[in-house]
Amino acid sequence: MSAPTPAGPAPEGRGLQPPAFGRPSPALLARADRGYARFLAQAAPDGCTDDHDQDDAARRR
Fold first, then answer.
1. Where is this region: Disordered (predicted)?
2. Beta-strand (E) ranges in the chain?
3. Given a cut of 80, is residue 60 above it in pLDDT?
């Protein structure tokens, strides 16, 4: 046997999810900001290495 189907719409309520479900917490945003700032602070590798000819060979292909 199956359970009877309710006649009306489901009641409105919070259910099992917290009210801010799907929104990142302030702590998570701060951590992401610090990681992104650290990523931007890294020095970009020099485009002209002249240590070897591998880069030049790849460009000529």
1. 1-26
2. none
3. no
